[in-house]
Amino acid sequence: MDSLNAELLKEFLWSSKEDIDVLEDLILAVEMGNPDSESVNTMYRTFHSLKGAAGLMQLQYTEKAAHKGESLLDTCRSNPAAYDVDVVTALLIFVDAVKSTILNIENEGNEGSDQYGEFLKALGTIDGASPIETTDQQQPDPAPPQSAPPAPAPVPVVPAPQAQAAPATPPPPQKAAPVPATPKPVAAAPQPTPPAPAPTPPPPAAAKPTPPPRRKKAAASEEKSEKKEIQAEASVRVSISLLDQLMNHVGELVLNRNQLLRISEQHDEDNNLLAACSSLDHVTSELQESIMQTRMQPVGAIFNKFPRIVRDLSRSLNKKVELDISGKETELDRTILESMRDPFTHILRNSLDHGVETPEERLAKGKAETGTIAIKAFHEGGQVIIEVSDDGNGINADRVLNKAIDNGLLTPEQAERMTDQDACNLIFHPGLSTAEAITNVSGRGVGMDVVKSNIEQIGGNIEVTSEYGAGTTLRIKIPLTLAIIPALMVQAEDMLYAIPQVNLIELVSIEPDELEKSLENIRGAEVYRLRERLLTILRLRDILNLPPRDDDDDRPLFIVVVAAGDQQFGIVVDDIFDTEEIVVKPLSSHLKPIEVFAGSTIRGDGQICLVLDMAGITRNRHIDTHSDLLSSDDDIDAHENNVEDQQEFLIFNLGHDNEQFAVPLQLISRIEQYPSNHIQKINGSQMICHDNSLLPAVFLEEHTKAEPLVYSPDNPEDTIYAIIFQSRTNIGLIVRNLVDSMVIDLSDTLDTPEIVSSSVATAFTVINDHATALIDVYALMDTAYPPIAQKSNTGVPVATTQSTAPVSTGPQTGGSPAAGPSLRILFCEDAQFFQNVVTGYLRESGHSVTMFENGKLGWDHLEQHKDDFDLVLTDLEMPVMNGWELIKSIRNLPSFDHLPIIALTSLTDEEARQKTLQAGASEHVVKLQKDELLQSVNRILMGQAQNS
Amino acid sequence: MSTITQDTIPAQISTFRLDEEWYSVDVLKVQEVLEPLPINTVPLTDKYIIGLINVRGIIVTCLSIKERLGFDDCDYGENYHNVIINDPDDGHVCLLVDEIGDVIQTNDLVFADRPPTIPAKAKPFIAGVFRDKDKLITFLDADAIIRAS
Total structural domains in chain A? Predict the structure, then answer.
């Protein structure tokens, strides 16, 4: 194709895209009911120009289809009653077809052959409006597109609608003809009025009485589309990379300006200099603002998709819903906007599926038959607020609470104390679905936690308010831009570092004389008790591998409390400075591997300052700097001391110095201190009664071979600790003393002597010369409180809708005995603790597990017993052959194509996840997340059941 | 890494001194040479990464050629220079040198492959040697030097 044509084609694609968007808007705006003449005319014109352009570009199929659409609309133009649901559907199908054609042209250079099949079919179903389509389909080989009229038509009326394409032919007499010929006499009724004298658009339509309520809307969108056209003329298309580049330059200019201003302050005797600087100051600020503007896009860019979603979905759900969007013009940074697309779609689907009731229900409640979903976007206090509200059923706070209690998220007592508002916010909790039946549209709760985390990722937040029976409003706050962020400047040694404000929770300063009391367990890992909560303390100097601070005890200790994901921790810094607006610049490839840095920035004085990455710090909290950072994949020896097998444990005892226990810190939700006499026996069970609430108490000696807990319930002064775990049921493990919290390398545990081990105490290690038993928290909970009413909240429809048997977490496979209720699992893991724990709960769920200590052993076995396994579960960091290598080996053999692989890891970051999935793993599950793992296993089981 | 043949010898090389030896890179790789700028050190990095400098608002990573080539004494004196190299991936990287020399036409020079006796550590970075009468100028592979390892 020569360059002229290529240029033309590009132009065609561009204009078609715009046209088709306008068309779609218009179709949806008019939707059903009688359209006003102007809307139909606009649609007609769009089809017409599309047809012309397609003809010019020799896109035969598009031209032909556009022609048919044009004919169809012409019929509607003269007979508004013909514009019915089927027509709308056909038009929308056409819109989709054109979109995919455009894609096809862009990708493959041709329009493809089968894009319009569905459209033609849809036209065929339109009764009455245009008999032509039926005849057309009967023709085995339709004549070449342009020469349609002369085709020998079996039905006399055929040429009529087609004639519109060629206005020269005299249409009026024939035009009237198809109408009496239609099988639908009703449609014919209004027909006599317009014996249209000419095929040109306006006159006949002008005569039509247009239904007033629809009119306003259509006119509005008409105005809008016209405005759009005008705007298009007055704008220039600029590539996004150029804009980003501009943005960068301006960022630098701003910094230069700041430097210059600083210098000019030192020369305040020179008025000329001062004047020049101040004007530079102004211009730079304005320039910066303008450039920021170019990155902004109206939220309408994503909202425009919503009418279509609502329309399609409400029809498939048999609901009547009107979507009311306002504030489309509110602008947001492009990158933010893009990342908001999915969450909003999800929210909208949720509102439709669970919020708005069916028309019958609505009428029964005395509401209008048609529900409304309103989306409102506006600026408020430097942020963009987007509200999505529906006038549907609202959230039933009681049901949410019941569900939360069932799932073990709350105790009944906690639930009691909750306000309805708090209860509503529970919908953001992972795995809480109040939908009684999970539809394929959504199960409210399944994805709301994802929505929330997506929004929080870009520094926004989401709140829900709901009145049961009256509706729900979601209020989403989003920052205007990501390019410039506020950050707190902190100091370590002689350098400044920036902590993004998003991560910041609070600042704590501890006076030197309080230091002893407040910082506990100063050995290995430090913990600070902040309002009865244990906060892990990291020292910035340790994180950065800098020498510790001199012991000048007269200075207070500054702790910056930060959050990364769900984790909160404190960072001890040398000093705290102001918050500054910083422009974050990416790090060079030399520095990227250092995960504790997110980027760098230049401060007003020209100094470079590194931005700390809180998520990176959590990943890297026990830094073994060089071996960890610089280890490459083939460097197996370096993995001997890998982070993977290191978990932080809380170490405690029951009052006997020579007997220690440890539980993973990750699983602890909180620790409380109670007077010993609060432990009471109620109805045969030990309970902690505190503040009018009951907490089931678990004594370790009842489930292991431990010596009994030392405590004196008669002494009112005596206190014990209760460790409360993050789990389905709230239980308190009663312990005497908290000894320490420290990292234990699980690849280094002792061989477990049969005599001392039990299902609860799974592995042993030596800590500070004391033998320490590692407690399997899940096993402990299961033995202490057998999961009678355990509802596995798997998110898998079968499992949630049926009450599953207590032990078998395997889903019912719905009459496919081939798969059986269990899987044969090959499990590779080098750390004995995890071996025991994971194997334990998999076996408990009815699966059979074959264990190997590293990838190599597992792989050798798998190669020899190809058909013996349904699932491979593997740790990632292992000696000899690591998990990634194992996954790759498996994926390299075609016979294992369908063998699912779950990677089990303590690497929680997205990068590791991507790497694993890229290697070919089916799932990536974080260690010690029992429920998550079982869910993944169930999903695979489900998939298998479907395949067989 | 690229091996240099007689055909791919750059037309001009930019020379510089490290300790008492002379080195060079393809002049087309060099964007500019700057006087010393304040260097911000970065914790947790490999030794060859000296730190970050602010070149007119662009943050540039400074690398030590001496570390890369395995010099015994990797310190730079007070009068070092920053040679800013264009990096196709990262924008710019800065190399520290002790003294900056002339830009030399290579058609006057004799090119030889790198001698087999150079230490293994330096091998990946050395592309060959130019001889200018009695002076030897080691030719460095700039891409290899600035590549992250």
Answer: 6
